[in-house]
Amino acid sequence: MGIVAMREHLRGQKYYEYLLDAVFCVVGSFIYGVSVSFFTAPNKIAPGGVTGISTILFYLVHTPIGVMIFVLNIPLFVLGLRFIGGSFMVKSIICTALTSVSVDGINAAMAAMGISAYHGNDILAALYGGVLSGLGLAMVFLRNATTGGTDIASRLLKIKFPQVSMGRMMLIIDAFIIAFSAIAFRSIDSALYAMIAIFTSSRVIDSVLYGADTGRMAIIISKNNDEISKAIIDEMDRGLTILKGKGYYTGEERDVIMCAVRRPEAVKLRRLIKRYDPSAFIIMCEAGEVIGEGFKPITKEI
Hints:
It is built from ten helices and four strands; from the N terminus they run H-H-H-H-H-H-H-H-E-H-E-E-H-E. The chain is of the alpha+beta class. The protein has two domains: 209 residues, no CATH class; 74 residues, 2-Layer Sandwich (Alpha-Beta Plaits).
């Protein structure tokens, strides 16, 4: 490939990445806006973060939720650009602006078309709000951006308190906001529903970001290692590693097979092992994330 052709290829790849950024951020922000406008905010559920604060302010002083989401993020953007910087902050500012427009825009559209928000079962509102917010946020996270709020605040606080994990930092911030919502709405139930929404959202985010990359790690001790290893490679198209082991009681040295498979392939692997050695000893472990050939590329950001 010549230099000119390579430059054109790289330019085309860059435009493709920009297009993906735009699609994921727009669609993700819209879905998140639906969760706020249709499920959580109308039912006085403040699911942590800047969105939670904006929801509380909407009921206390009647400020638009979308506008306040962006306004409250401005100090975080200023600090983030100074201490974090990079394309992450630029994308986050754009996604936050899209989220703000989505929330207020959806509210305005619903009012114009006479569509009412959901006011049924509060638990269902928390669950569906959590599912949609998690899906929307995951789409944004996939493009290495955020919708501002707790995530940026946690990154900034971690600079000051590096000994505290990001997850714990976010949990502490959200806990304060949920406690404040219970006081503002004078309802413990509201805080409990917010916790349900946050938990549901986090589970959906994890499923979208890491669900395709979870798998099983198998440790296999067998007298027919050669046959099992060849079958794993030929029939399952999976790589494996041979570890050197030694039985503590017998003192016998033996090879141990270690391999990673996707979750649906675990049953097939067990059947394959049973075919060659019904007395094999198998340890099957959950692998929260598998990175490398045949799974998620190691170069992938998330």
